[in-house]
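Sat 14:20. Reprocessing the chain from the morning session after the first attempt stalled halfway. Input below, unchanged.
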Amino acid sequence: MKKHSIHYLIIVFSLIFMASCQAQVTETPPPGENSQEKQASKKIKENSIHSEKFIENVDWLSDDEVLTVTEEEGEAAFYVTNVFDGGSEKIYQSPSSYVHSVVSPDKDKILIHSAPATYSAMITIIDLNGKVYYQDEVPSYELSYEWNEFNTDKLLITSFAEDWSFEVFELDLRTSQLQMVDVEQPFLKWDSDVSILYQDWNSEEISVSAPLVSKNILDGKKETIDSSSIHFERFPEYLLSVHESEGGDGEFNYQFISENGEIVSQFHMKLLSRYSDWFIPFYDMIEDKNELITFQANESGSFDTYSGTFALKKWDVMKGSEVTLIDDLPVEPIQCSPKGSYCLYGNQLEKVINLKDSAIIALVKKEG
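Finished this time. Tokens:
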């Protein structure tokens, strides 16, 4: 009887201990909740960047900071700017003529494209402290580059000659090797660590759409993902492919395709025509929320003569639902913060849109 009593007491104390632990767990807010509430209570600092030497904001480095490029004594200076307190820290200065820069998908590296001469491109890759990972000069009249979201130590670089002939290279930052890739098309996206996506255009015919193909760059094997795509983009979880609806009349389907080839959801949107193709409005994916932020023309017509405005839309990929955030805006580039509370907006990404209340805040102070 005494042994049973001891066992009974052990069980009772165990249950009390478990209940106490569970109570403590339920009282603890979910991870990230406090930081989101703190960010929501902060306000974007208006006019914190002087326009006199401002070149552009490139992208978000975190939910608080963006990469800002300014001109200093004829060179491009790179700053980490806090959009809430207006503070900035210089991390690098490029002596060559600045063209553009791109932040890596994991937000810890920056590719800087500069042009020391007309037919030459300088590629410099730094970390957020300004340490140079890689630097090399590539013969090029024009240059395009795509970071691998599945392995951010890899990039695709396409070098164009003046006659638009091209060469494609894979840059591996671990080895600093630039290796040529055998591919038929110049405009590429990564589909995995070792495969690439491209539209397989027929050089014998004029067309606004083409089959969307995935090619393994190790063994050369190809797979057709979509038989007729006018535009595509690869996100870590989904592939976006845009193609004309059966009814035509300028209406297109934005289809989100899963890894196994299933259509997760799709949205319909009328696009503005151009001379030889269709205008795809600027967009960005908030990956943490599976939400696509994009513009939609409020009227039909031709992009070249269009004088109307655009609505800013939010599409939930998983739910297949659509929300209009702002009814009337000019269509300009947009880049959203990782948690998706704010988006940089404008031709130089000089403004911020608060997605919660649709307010637009100017980061760059107008001089004079």
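The helical segments are 2-27, 33-41.
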